[in-house]
Write a structure and sequence with these properties.
Blueprint: H1 7-21, E1 31-35, H2 38-44, E2 54-56, E3 68-72, H3 78-81, H4 85-88, E4 89-94, E5 100-106, H5 117-130, E6 136-140, H6 143-148, H7 156-166, H8 170-173, E7 179-181, H9 189-199, E8 204-207, E9 211-216, H10 219-242, H11 252-262
Parallel strand pairs: 7-8
Antiparallel strand pairs: 1-3, 1-6, 2-5, 3-4, 4-5, 6-9, 8-9
The protein binds Dihydroxyacetone and zinc ion (ZN).
Length: 283
């Protein structure tokens, strides 16, 4: 089957274009990866190339040996993906040590996989160990979530609780909460290690003053998680723009009721009592 016609490819391209149109991918900002299913690889294997050099990943991911990924290219613009998928995307295979990759398809005018490949692959490794269902890692630069990293304490508990309070659906969509990494140099193994540690607990990890990573089982759900978190962040930015304090909000006991009604378990560490209804500086 033609690689571009595969459903996973079409879903990936649509997701990238949706993200661009949301305004989350200025210039070459953001990156996306999908762990391809063996049965999908089987359908396109005859059309893949096997002569490209093996290149170091910049991270060790032995549990991903032999896996194939569809990834965005380093320096490529999300804006161009829909019109030029073969020039902006790549399918890569991981070697049997989990240390090198080989380009099997795409990047027809040259280039390499996303600069955040270490973070993508380490997150995939952590998530796959939890469930084979996890297949997508998505990094974007949504303005509201980034704005909040300048005014909220960089703590998982604070970001989770404040985002949950902004929309009733939030604790149902991300009941495990969100993690936060303080500012670090992007693109290397160090930030990948910090992010993947938090991916042990969360499906979303915020990078202070930079963006956010989301993990999920498919393009639809992972995009939906990003969208839900950024919408909630937008509401919080609007609230903070009007007033430093909330007149009323969703209270800890309301969240407990919600957990019962929607059959989700909400960790008590996010349901702390606050000293006042002022957000900034409160923990
Ligand atoms: O330019 O988003 O984090 C791609 C990025 C790096
Ligand atoms: Zn980024």
């Amino acid at each position: 089957m033609k690689t571009l016609e595969m459903a996973f490819m079409q879903g990936f391209i649509r997701m990238a274009d949706d993200g661009f149109r949301m305004g989350w991918h200025e210039r070459n900002g953001g990156n996306l990866s999908y762990r391809i299913k063996p049965e999908e690889v089987a359908l396109i294997k005859g059309r893949l190339r096997h002569d490209a050099p093996w290149v170091p990943i910049g991270a060790h991911v032995p549990s991903l040996a032999g896996e194939y990924f569809l990834v965005t290219g380093s320096g490529k613009f999300f804006r161009d993906i829909k019109d030029d998928p073969e020039g902006t995307l790549a399918i890569i295979e991981i070697d049997d040590k989990g240390e090198n990759y080989q380009i099997k398809w795409g990047l027809v005018e040259g280039g390499k996989p996303t600069s955040e490949l270490p973070a993508h692959l380490m997150n995939h490794a952590v998530k796959r160990a939890k469930s084979e269902d996890y297949r997508v890692i998505y990094h974007a630069h949504p303005a509201n979530i980034i704005a909040l990293t300048f005014v909220l304490p960089l703590k998982d508990e604070v970001f989770t609780r404040e985002l949950w309070e902004m929309a009733t659906e939030c604790p149902v969509v991300f009941p495990d909460g969100v993690g936060v990494v303080g500012w670090m140099v992007p693109g290397g193994e160090a930030i990948a290690i910090e992010t993947s540690k938090l991916m042990e607990r969360y499906d979303a990890v915020i990078w202070a003053h930079h963006g956010i990573f989301c993990a999920g089982d498919g393009a639809h759900t992972t995009f939906g998680l990003m969208h839900t978190i950024e919408k909630s962040a937008e509401i919080l930015v609007k609230v903070l723009s009007m007033s430093p304090a909330k007149l009323q909000t969703i209270e800890p006991d309301n969240f407990r009721d919600l957990a019962g009604a929607f059959h989700v378990s909400l960790p008590e560490r996010f349901l702390y009592e606050k000293e006042s209804n002022t957000i900034i500086g409160k923990e």
